[in-house]
Structure formats: C-alpha cells, structure tokens
Amino acid sequence: MRLFLLLISFLVPAAASAAAGNADIHAIAQKSAELLHVERVDEVRKTQIEGLFEVRSGRNIFYSDAQGKYFVLGGSLIDTAAGKNLTSERKEQINRIDWSELPLDKAILSGDRGAKLKLAIFTDPDCPYCRKLEKELVDLKGVAVYTFLYPLEKLHPNARAKSEAIWCSKEQHSMLQKVMLERFVPEAARCKTPIDDIQTLAQRLNINGTPTFIAGDGRMASGVKSAADMKTWLENGMQKD
Length: 241
Prior knowledge:
By secondary structure, the protein is of the alpha+beta class. Helices cover 39% and strands 19% of the residues.
C-alpha cells in the first residue's frame, strides 16, 4: 500500500500531461520488459486513474506511470465507490478459458446435474484447503459440479493413490467425500484413470495449485469460497453474459 501511495504522489504532477495524451506506450512496454524481467509485454492500456497504466504480461498485471519510470507490483486497483477490486476483475477477464475445452467425461459429476450454473474444480484429496472447499460444496445448491482429480504429488505423496481409488470407485462422489471429509484411506485402485490427462490439462491451463475452480463462463479463481459466495460468484458471471 505504501508503494502504491508513493506512486500516486509521483503521478499527480504528471496528470495533466498524461491526460493530454502524452503517455509513451512504447517506453512503458520496453522498460516493463527490462525492469520487471518479463519475456514479453502483451498489452499496455489506461486505467480508471488518470496517469496510471495497466501493463499485462501473460496472466500477470503490473501498473506504470505514463513514462514507464515507476511501477506498482502486487497491488490491487480498488473502486471504493462501487466496492470492486478492479485488478481481480481484470485478472478474471484475461484468465478466462473456453469451457468447451474441458474434458467433462474425465471429471466426477455431482450437485444438481441439470443446473444452468456450472462449476469445474481441480482438487487434491490431501490438500487442506480442498477439504475446506469440499465441505462448503455440501451446501452448494443449484450448481452442476465437475471435479477433476489433480493430485500434487510433490506436496502430497499419497494423493495420487487416493485419487486413483476415488476414480475407480463405483460411487465416485461418495468416495471423494469420504476420503476428503472423513479422512478415509481407500484400497488401491484397479482401473485405468484419467489423472495423467488431467495433469497435462492443468499444465496447459497454467493451473499450479489446488483448489482451482472454473465457472461455466470460463472465469478462473482459486482458494476457498463459502457456498453462498460461490453461488454469487457463479450467478454474477451469468448476469454479465
């Protein structure tokens, strides 16, 4: 926050020139690549704050003054009047994926299967945050949930065996809940699983942690949301469409 306020103090004297269209987009892009050590700069565009520019590199967002002299890293742009985190909303836009690309036949389907609201989750049965999210999902109504088993073996050595056992169970979702919510240790699996394919998919989508979830409109987020917050997040996407 101090860094953000410091940047704003530098921008105030330059606001008039920035408003007059004197922003050096080329300099911002060039200095961003040099100073921030990014391989490429995909986009530079104005923000709602006069004199402050968004610099996008892949899925990462930075902020710069009009000449590329000062940068804000790791900050969020907040619209206090609307009560919105503009940086988070922007990241949702650039991280959006095509839902049709998800191999839903390799996911465990649960929830209200015919619901218009759809949610895909990449989960690890030994991930503590995934367990918290799974507990919230019990109370999530009116949503079709597709769970992709994505064990992070470097962090949780036993997660793959549990994931395989869940997939090979006759009642996949019941076993998923039993393993995650009751800490049940299932017997070894005896069937072919799609876990390798899911890991390849996760890498292609730049999903490096769990739980990561994707709304039916392609927005991506991570962490734990309450059932109520998750429902609101999904509904907000439908309203925008």
